[in-house]
Specification:
200 residues, single chain, rod-shaped
Length: 200
């Protein structure tokens, strides 16, 4: 008498569990989509920052080359002026050599200063690039998208378990029941005696 009720309860439980699993999957899917959009935005902004820093590096290189070219041209002009002055004065000796070397030393010092400034700027830009990249990676990992994957196997097991629990709790039994005959029942017509080869 309880079997139809038990089966009905099991069907209701399975339907409820399936609907719950579906709603849970939709919610997780929406959260995953939102996280993916945030991850894409983080990556896009990180790429923009990377490109800006690359352009800043190129600007520093161009500026350093311009300054070095200017120093070289100025050095050539200064050396020409010194040589002309020495030639017109008719002077010679160590003093004139020191004057020429002074021009070369000043030019060398200016070049070193320009190179040092570029190296410092490059290191700062490179450190910013690395920091921005690592921050973006950490932000993407921190969104925790892997924790919200839908586990279809677990959902299926939950649905089956809900149906089984409802079936049992409402009086149903799994498996075939015993087929023993009621007390006092007449033996089956198909039974035969084994005496005389099965016949009387």
């Amino acid at each position: 008498m309880c079997e139809p009720v038990s089966i009905g309860m099991a069907i209701v439980a399975v339907a409820g569990a399936a609907m719950s699993a579906s709603e849970g999957a939709k919610a997780k899917g929406q959260m995953t989509d939102n996280e993916r959009k945030q991850q894409n935005e983080i990556v896009k902004q990180a790429n923009f920052a990377e490109n800006d820093q690359k352009l800043a590096t190129v600007d520093k290189q161009d500026e350093a080359r311009r300054q070095l070219t200017e120093v070289n041209l100025q050095t050539i002009r200064n050396q020409g002026t010194i040589n002309t002055a020495i030639g017109e004065s008719g002077l010679a000796g160590n003093s004139m050599d020191r004057l020429k070397n002074s021009v070369a030393n000043d030019a060398s010092a200016e070049k070193m200063n320009i190179t040092d400034n570029y190296d410092r700027d490059y290191q700062a830009i490179f450190a910013n690039r690395v920091g921005s990249s690592e921050n973006a990676k950490a932000a993407v990992r921190g969104l925790g998208g892997n924790n919200r994957k839908v586990n279809n196997i677990a959902n299926a097991l939950n649905i089956v378990s809900a149906g089984g629990n409802a079936y049992v709790s409402s009086g149903g039994k799994f498996g075939k029941g015993g087929s023993t005959a009621p007390a006092g029942a007449a033996p089956s017509n198909n039974s035969r005696s084994i005496n005389n080869g099965g016949t009387r």
